[in-house]
């Protein structure tokens, strides 16, 4: 049996209460510290008061004296001195005039906002969000794949000062086909990161749309094709960065580790060498990857990337594949040197699982040592997940040859650097963006001079 409908009066009262709370919330946001509204409101009121005094002086001492006299006499006639002092009536008129001025400005802003396609009710939230995000910590995130885009989608809620440095050596799938056809850098991981940081929900959705049919289109994402178009039009993605950030309304910045095409090469423990990261998983076999290199090795980095690293308050590696997402971005000489020289804390977000054929048999210690060996700097902190995925999920990964990475058996040095937190999504073996972002926000940032 359904509940009886509320009386009409009760419904109106509830709506009134809801509207009152909404107005209170908006008022609190307008008056929040740092939003840049209170100072101008106070200045407006001060100037209005000074203007009123000046106008009074002009009318009382100038040619309009007779008008001021008649106004005062009429106002006095409407006011009983024994009930309300004459000056209180004057204050009341001033208050009404000020309220009218503020109302007219609010209506003017409403009309201008609607003219630009912005809902007035959303304007205060947008201003508040942008002001607070602009004061967020400067974070540089390095890596690639779904892990990095996952992290970015969590960080974007806390800061707008994000710089993603993305590995571009992928040679499989859509990225591989575009690389081979156009001799460009791999766009796939860039597309994922642009979508994660875009302030346009429509563009973020379109960027990730993958064509399922069409000769030459099947398998490509719209984002990859857009980046390929810009690269072709402007002679490389390096020249197209500004256009991409503006078109997609990126919150922060996304840059490739290098704008020059490169091939990832793996040297194995048995002496073999594998060219192309898409071949690693199936050709490593029983051996282990001892080192990865870029060919050509001396790749240039974008000046904006180096500037971001030098000004960073925090540098985050991962989450992502160790040898095909994180380390390739660190192999660009200028990027590695900039990270070694900065005093910003270096944080490694440890993978949840080993990856069959790439990191099979490697411990968490081995992951950290591989980063140290390739970068020349050991992470200051290692974020390690402390929550256990469901047993069914662990079993599913185990059947594919992947195993959980934990601190069990780790060295004393790693234990001293490790921070254990529950970082996974419920019921999955996947990092939770919100949990990751909160963990990084709680970590001490470098104090800038």
TrEMBL record:
Q: Which UniProt keywords apply?
A: Cytoplasm, Membrane, Transmembrane, Transmembrane helix
Q: Where in the cell is it found?
A: Cytoplasm
Tell me the superkingdom of the source.
Bacteria
Kindly list the residue ranges recorded as spanning the membrane. 40-60, 84-106
Q: One matching Pfam family, short form? A: CofD
**Biological processes annotated in GO:** regulation of cell shape
Family annotation (InterPro entries): CofD, CofD-like_dom_sf, Gluconeogen_factor
Give the family per the record. Answer: Belongs to the gluconeogenesis factor family.
Task: Say what the protein does.
Answer: Required for morphogenesis under gluconeogenic growth conditions.
Q: What is this protein called?
A: Putative gluconeogenesis factor
Task: Tell me the organism.
Answer: Deinococcus koreensis
């Amino acid at each position: 049996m359904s509940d009886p409908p509320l009386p009409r009066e009760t419904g109106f009262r509830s709506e009134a209460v809801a509207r009152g709370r909404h107005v209170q919330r908006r008022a609190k946001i307008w008056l929040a510290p740092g939003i840049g509204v209170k100072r101008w409101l106070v200045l407006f009121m001060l100037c209005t008061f000074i203007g009123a005094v000046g106008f009074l002086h002009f009318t009382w001492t100038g040619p309009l004296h007779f008008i001021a006299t008649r106004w005062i006499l009429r106002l006095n006639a409407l006011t009983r001195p024994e009930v309300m002092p004459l000056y209180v009536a004057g204050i009341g008129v001033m208050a009404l005039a000020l309220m009218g001025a503020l109302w007219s400005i609010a209506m003017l802003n409403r009309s201008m906002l609607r003219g630009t396609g912005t809902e007035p009710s959303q304007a205060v939230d947008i201003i508040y969000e942008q002001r607070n995000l602009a004061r967020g910590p400067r974070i540089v995130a390095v890596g690639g794949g779904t892990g990095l885009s996952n992290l970015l989608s969590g960080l974007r809620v806390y800061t707008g000062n994000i710089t993603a440095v993305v590995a571009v050596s992928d040679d499989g799938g859509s990225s591989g086909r575009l690389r081979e056809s156009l001799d460009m850098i791999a766009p796939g991981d860039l597309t994922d990161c642009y979508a994660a940081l875009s302030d346009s929900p429509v563009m973020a959705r379109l960027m990730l749309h993958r064509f399922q049919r069409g000769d030459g289109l099947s398998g490509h994402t719209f984002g990859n094709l857009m980046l390929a178009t810009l690269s072709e039009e402007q002679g490389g993605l390096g020249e197209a960065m500004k256009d991409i950030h503006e078109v997609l309304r990126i919150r922060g910045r996304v840059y490739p580790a290098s704008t020059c095409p490169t091939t990832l090469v793996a040297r194995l423990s048995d002496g073999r060498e594998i060219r192309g990261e898409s071949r690693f998983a199936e050709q490593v076999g029983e051996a282990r990857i001892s080192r990865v290199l870029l060919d050509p090795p001396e790749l240039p980095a974008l000046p904006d990337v180096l500037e971001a690293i030098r000004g960073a308050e925090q540098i985050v590696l991962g989450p992502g594949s160790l040898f095909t997402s994180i380390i390739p971005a660190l192999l660009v000489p200028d990027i590695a040197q900039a990270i070694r020289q900065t005093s910003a804390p270096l944080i490694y977000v440890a993978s949840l699982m080993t990856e069959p054929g790439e990191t099979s048999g490697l411990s968490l210690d081995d992951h950290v040592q591989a980063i140290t060996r390739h970068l020349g700097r050991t992470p200051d902190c290692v974020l390690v997940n402390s929550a256990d995925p469901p047993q069914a999920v662990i079993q599913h990964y185990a059947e594919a040859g992947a195993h959980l990475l934990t601190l069990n058996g780790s060295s004393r040095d790693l234990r001293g650097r490790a921070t254990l937190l529950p970082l996974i999504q419920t019921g999955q073996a996947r990092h939770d963006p919100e949990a990751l972002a909160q963990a990084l926000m709680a970590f001490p940032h470098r104090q800038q001079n």
